[in-house]
Amino acid sequence: MVFIFGSVSFLILLLIAIFIFKEGLPAFKQIGVFNFLFGTEWRPGREEFGILPMIIGSIVVTIGSMLMAVPLGIACAILLAEVAPERVRQFIRPAVELLVGIPSVVYGLVGMTLIVPAIRHIGGTGYSVLAASIVLMAMVLPTVISISEDSIRAVPREYREGSLALGSTQWQTIWHVLVPAARSGITASVILGMGRAIGETMAMIMVIGNSVMIPTSPLSQARTLTGNIAVEIMYATGIHENALYATGIVLFVLILMINSFGILILKRGASTQYVS
Amino acid sequence: MSAKSSHRLAMAFIWGGGAITVLILVSIITYVFANGFQVINWEFLTTPPQGGLSGEGGISTAIVTTLYLVVITTVLLIPPGLGAAIYLAEYATDNWLTRTIRYGVETLAGVPSIVFGLFGFALFVTVLHFNFSLLSGALTLVCLLLPTLIRTAEEALKAVPPGHRDGALALGATKWQTIQHVLLPAALPGIVTGIILCVGRVVEETACLYVTLGGSAAMPTSLLSGGRTLSLHLFYLAMETRAFDKAMGTGVVLIATIIIINTFTNWLSRRFQTIMSGAS
Predict the structure, then answer these.
(1) Does A237 touch chain B (CB under 8 A)?
(2) What is the ipTM of this complex?
């Protein structure tokens, strides 16, 4: 009895895979895997379904957001794990938790009314890859911070004491001893943050403009894989609907690869580190 | 650069990182509250949205739909979630089957909300003919939230000191009696924390509900009527009617709800830790 419940989430994973593949495979068959993945035209009315612009859109905003979130997140993780006194920690940690809790539509709303108009002053409509990256940066920051912090904290005390006893400054200890020792956890935090970034939907729809085009500058509009599904699934029929499920397959496989890689690094780090 | 000055520079960078993180949060909250607070009054909270292009009206039906969805989802989520946690914490031995199940839980936790939505749309809305409804939305949310509940409940069960378990078994209790009368009550605060965490997620989620709940602004009357949660309502206001002031007002209600939920979970989990460390 308990075992049946135990396997329920595995069954759900299986069901998700089955349903999405069942609905999406006809699109791969009819359009062709190559044409679907590398086609640059997405025109459902003319039965042209190429998702390369969306793949590039998703990758570009992910990289854009990580460029900002990684230095910021690691700095904040070091602060929380090593530098800040307890009083400051008790102030920052709830702030990070609240960043996780704020609904993605609220991030989108702030992006639409604050960041998009600001970018409009620089050029374009404001709905852009840049706006999406900034909004996404705030959303993935907690993931980077919490996993990095845990891994820095997990470095044994002897490492710290040994380094300080040799006359290193606190920063030399952090940079040459602690960060290298925690590198697998920090890498994993970046990879899992990327997984979260690629999966984000609503906030992206709200600030990226959703035009099907390969972005040429940070001010260009774009569309993400997630946005492609959400914007069109409600009215799509026939092969168009299949093509959206196929977009889901691409997203599903992409996330599976990224997260498995992240979890693998995290586990290998935990098992090989600190054998003294 | 000398060691001392590079130390100073690095510390400035680290403190800067922390300050910017807090600043991001503070500016989001201040901005939403400053722009949304003036639309909040009794009328806003108790009248239904008018629909149409003006975005007139309040958020009463969105509040009610959110509450309904929280209750339905929690009721459907607890039995399988708790069952799986008990299995993993107390029964599972380390073999390929358990590892497969664990891999399933971990992987499911990383699948994006919109993919759950796509699945819910295919299975619950289309194949099972629940249409766009509270039931479809709740079932989709159950799939989405299972990993969260399983993980927190399993950790809570594992945090119960082994003395409790051994004591009960030594007194002749069966394994199930031990679980039912000793482990579950001891782990209860931790399990409740996990459940409240899931309640928070129901309030936050939008993508998977966007394609399973339908978005009707009317008051839901049964499990099979559609609706819109507060998050979904905010999305429609911002994207379709461009009623940004009302959207900000809805945002204030959402953020206030999340702050209350977070404060409560923090308090509860701190209490749980104190009890557990005191008991061992």
Answers:
(1) no
(2) 0.90
Q: pLDDT digit string (tens) for A196-224?
A: 999 999 999 999 998 899 999 899 999 99
The shortest C-alpha distance from A171 to chain B (Å) reads 5
CB pairs under 8 A between A and B: 259
Q: Which CATH superfamily is domain A15-272 in?
A: MetI-like (1.10.3720.10)
pTM here is: 0.90
CB contact (8 A) between residue A2 and residue B113: no
Report CA torsion sign: A198, B25, B155, B77. negative
Q: List CB contacts of B187: < 8 A, sequence separation 6 or more.
A: B153, B156, B157, B159, B160
Instruction: Enumerate the β-bridge partners of residue B49.
Output: B57
Instruction: Put residue B214 in one of left, alpha, beta given phi > 0 → left and psi -120 to 50 → alpha.
Output: left
Mutate which: A8, A145, A170, vs B, most B CBs within 10 A: A8
pLDDT digit string (tens) for B201-256?
999 999 999 999 988 888 888 888 888 999 999 999 999 888 888 899 999 999 99
Contact B110 A96 (CB under 8 A): no
pLDDT in tens, A96-147: 988 888 999 999 999 999 999 999 999 889 899 999 999 999 999 999 999 9
**Sign of the torsion angle spanned by Cα atoms B88, B91, B96, B97:** negative
> Are B165 and B182 within 8 A, CB to CB?
yes
Tens of pLDDT, residues A8-18: 777 888 888 89
Q: Do B32 and A170 touch (CB under 8 A)?
A: no
Residues 216-235 of B with CB under 8 A from A: 231-232, 234-235
Query: To the nearest whole angstrom, how far is the Cα of A41 from the nearest Cα of chain B?
Result: 23
From CA B63, how far away is CA B217, in angstroms rounded?
Answer: 11
Alpha-carbon gap, residue A12 to A2, rounded angstroms: 16
Whether residues B255 and A15 touch (CB distance < 8 A) is answered with no
**Cα separation of B42 and B40, whole Å?**
7
